[in-house]
Prior knowledge:
CATH topology of the domain at 8-101 in chain A: Rna Polymerase Sigma Factor, Chain: A
CATH class of the domain at 8-101 in chain A: Mainly Alpha
Structural class of chain B: alpha+beta
Strand content of chain A: under 5%
Number of strands of chain B: 6
Number of strands of chain A: 2
Low-confidence stretches of chain B: 84-91, 125-231
Oligomer: heterodimer
Distance between the termini of chain A: 63 Å
Mean pLDDT of chain B: 69
CATH architecture of the domain at 8-101 in chain A: Orthogonal Bundle
Shape of chain A: elongated
Radius of gyration of chain A: 18 Å
Number of helices of chain A: 9
Helix content of chain A: over 70%
Largest sheet of chain B: 6 strands, mixed
Low-confidence stretches of chain A: 1-12
Mean pLDDT of chain A: 79
Order of helices and strands of chain B: HHHHHHHHEHEHEEHEHHEH
Amino acid sequence: MKYCGGWIGGACVNEExxxxxxxxxxxxxxxxxxxxxxxxxxxxxxxxxxxxxxDAKDLHQEAWIKIYVNMxxxxxxxxxxxxVCKVATNVxxxxxxxxxxxxxxxxxxxxVYAERQSPENAAIINEEIDGLKRALCSLSPEERAxxxxxxxxxxxxxxxxxxxxxxxGTVKSGLSRARGKIIRLRAAEREA
Amino acid sequence: xGYCENISNSISLYVDNEMKPAERKKFEEHxxxxxxxxxxxxxxxxxxxxxxxFRRDAAPDGVHDETMQAVxxxxxxxxxxxxxxxxxxxxxxxxRNAALAACGVFAAFLAVGAGISIFLFSAGLGNETxxxxxxxxxxxxxxxxxxxAPVSSADYGNEYVSGSADGAEMSVPEISAPxxxxxxxxxxxxxxxxxxxxxxxxxxxxxxxxxxxxxEMSLTNEDIxxxxxxxxxxxxxxxxxxSDDARRAVDxxxxxxxxxxxxxxxxxxxxxxxxxxxxxxxxxxRGVMDVLRGVGVVIYENESETRTVGEIMDxxxxxxxxxxxxxxxxxxxxxxxxxxALAVLAERLSQAESERDEILSRxxxxxxxxxxxxxxxxxxxxxxIDPVSNSLASRMKDSFLKSVKICRAFLExxxxxxxxxxxxxxxxxAGVFVAFAIxxxxxxxxxxxx
Lengths: 192, 450
């Protein structure tokens, strides 16, 4: 078996490098292959930031168009995953900035997890989720991205730093600050 | 600093599993004992659990197709950025830098080669080894031997070196004839005769036109009958000597009576041999031979004699007759008035003068040979090894010059190859840079249009 530098999105890096190169040269079949590997990730980031399918779909589409157009700007094929996340995150952050002052999530959106619980638990969970959504709305787009990448995607600090273009220390302090803000807001809501 | 003050940071690190084991243990102990921090921690944990509710393991159905359609639409409307595509081309970066590196190495190669060549030539090593490249003969500065001062052995230094380097016998191309002190003893008052007719001469003494003219003047004198020959025959001697110090022996030969009509010194494979033809005044011949026998062991000695007195007398008679003929023709020429006769007479006169000159030359040679018999001297180093030439310094010098020869040959080849490559390399380099420049300009103009 040929040497493989590692696995990203289920594809051997060496094979993926070939696919990335083809896609960068305008091969749509190769691009579609890449999209199949990474679309879950992109959609998940978009949903994690906006918490509704409608926005997530739009942002997912916008992100992939940007990825297609800017394929050549991905300097290192080994960091393709990080680069895709970066593009997706930036698309979401830009969208949030455009919608500044407006609600970015649909409170009517049903929570799949809550639906599977008992009515009492479901109510509690729905309450928690809605409360979290409200708290997230009060965060800056960058803080929201940090919380999403860590809490929803489970990225390590180093990965988040790479995606966000920050130092690891900044990621640590930013996450701590954002989480603290959410908890304080939730506590204030509960007291109220 | 207690956890309560900075609990947010600590909890964040704890839930993200970014704490070191020791810190983690300490944190857990604190949480167990601090109700406020525990409550805070529980809020944190709940937040993380709820956050996972936003995870999506797959995009909804139809999202992929819709997105792909949108991408296709964009692809059909907006061509990809050419610059970006080029950047993605594998090895483009390496190819560009390799070309630049190759150009740099080539330039450095040329510079170093040129520098070393200039250094060698400025140091004169190229000429010293005789690799002038122009095909000129090597010049040897063999000092003119003087009668009173022995010739120093150092005067042969260059010759030894070159003889060794080339591995062949080297003849000295130029030598000045020494002044002969016993001029008065020569017939006709001449000093140095013309030696160009000598068969065995390896190199002739420079023509001395003034003295030659003196000889002719004296021979065309009316008092030709006063010519006399002191020797009735021409003698020649051969002597072969083996000496412990061959070069010293050569020095001694060079300061003896007479002059060298030819000289050849060979130094090859540690063997020193000198072949000298020395013309010695007849009156001093016996003394010279005694000196020669003293410079080393005489291996071979031979005396030969050729009687020439009759030939000299015949030549003198021919010269007299030819002189008369010239006088007669000159007289006829002055009296004649016919154009044809004038032409014929002038031609005959010219021919007679030419013949007279030839007789003069022959006579001169006879007289020269009669007055200064030749001594053919061969001097070899006793034992066949020259102590000085075999010395370490001499060998080192030889080795050094050989290495210089090799280096120079290498540099010549290098420069030759570089010269052959410089034009194509320059064209390729220029082409690469022009291509880059055009691409950059095109990109800029496209950007401006956008």
